[in-house]
Write a structure and sequence with these properties.
This protein is an alpha/beta fold. The protein has one domain: Aldolase class I (TIM Barrel, Alpha-Beta Barrel), CATH 3.20.20.70. It is 38% helix and 15% strand. The chain contains 11 helices and 10 strands. It has an 8-stranded mixed sheet, sandwiched between helices. A two-stranded parallel ribbon has the order 3-4. Strand 9, helix 10 and strand 10 form a beta-alpha-beta unit.
């Protein structure tokens, strides 16, 4: 299938506000990766221009071969034990009130990278005790001990993306599974206490409306109470093609349906991504 032209509602001007250069300089200063750049996020200029970014730990090479992702694939590099501390210093210089940390998937590591997540959370707590921390994790192969290692460091939000509907999972995420992702969320919710559990879906991959509804119901049943719904954009020509573009009005309807199902907070729109306006979701979501 040929790749489709972007509709007008997807296009946005490139911003290079003063904070954009400041964020870029800080990331270079501390030798840090961001999902904004590695995943070619369409919101990068807006977020960096607003003085924020989503940190990506564990290197910039992923051990998996998901067909929707722009992140480099191959043999990952050794871990950098100083990375958590540098992230904390950069977040402090940026004056962040809500810090989002994600990673590549590291199936080559004996703990899936869970200790690095925990170390990063603890470093942030030490340097920015008043900030809230959100982690967007891989599935850790569903190993509960690894998930617990992250949860024991007490992030404020535990986010793991389901990504797509059950039918499309094997083709899009060949080394992952729908049920494993749900089990990760279910375990996090069972252990959560004050930790909010969040997930996200990409749309426009060829899923049907009824499949979206089922995926939302499955997420809710797993204990997930916050969800993001965004338009999939193919990052390069070899990636899975866009099947269709969902209109802003359709996203509004999906948001209303998700809220009616019982989700506490929903971010839905063509350019919504897992960590897009995460601070707003943190502030506006019901407490408890």
């Amino acid at each position: 299938m040929p790749h489709r032209r972007l509709p007008d509602w997807i296009k946005r001007p490139i911003r290079t506000d003063a904070d954009y250069g400041r964020v870029l300089a800080l990331l270079r200063k501390y030798h840090l990766n961001t999902v904004c750049r590695s995943a070619r996020c369409p919101n990068r200029h807006e977020c960096w221009g607003s003085g924020t970014a989503t940190f990506m730990i564990l290197g910039e090479v992923c051990s998996r071969t998901c067909r929707f992702c722009a992140v480099k694939k191959g043999t990952p590099s050794p871990l950098d034990p100083q990375e958590p501390g540098r992230i904390a210093l950069a977040a402090a210089e940026m004056g962040l009130r809500h810090v989002v940390v994600t990673s590549v998937t590291r199936d080559d590591l004996p703990d899936g990278g869970s200790e690095a997540f925990a170390d990063t959370i603890r470093a942030l707590r030490k340097v920015l005790p008043s900030a809230t921390v959100e982690v967007l994790t891989p599935d850790f192969r569903g190993v509960t001990a690894w998930i617990n290692q992250v949860l024991d460091a007490r992030p404020d939000v535990f986010n793991h993306n389901l990504e797509t509907v059950r039918r499309l999972q094997p083709a899009l995420r060949p080394q992952a599974s729908y049920d494993t992702s749900l089990s990760v969320l279910r375990h996090a919710a069972s252990r959560s206490g004050a930790v909010a559990v969040k997930s996200g879906l990409m749309l426009g991959l060829g899923e049907r409306d009824d499949e979206i509804q089922i995926a939302l119901q499955d997420l809710l049943a797993s204990g997930c109470r916050r969800v993001t719904l965004g338009q999939y954009l193919a990052p390069h020509r070899e990636a899975w093609p866009v099947e269709r573009f969902i209109t802003p009005d359709e996203f509004t309807v999906l948001e209303q349906k998700a809220l009616a199902l019982g989700f506490e907070d929903v971010a839905a729109g063509p350019l919504v991504r897992s960590s897009y306006q995460a601070e707003r979701m943190m502030q506006e979501a019901p407490k408890g």
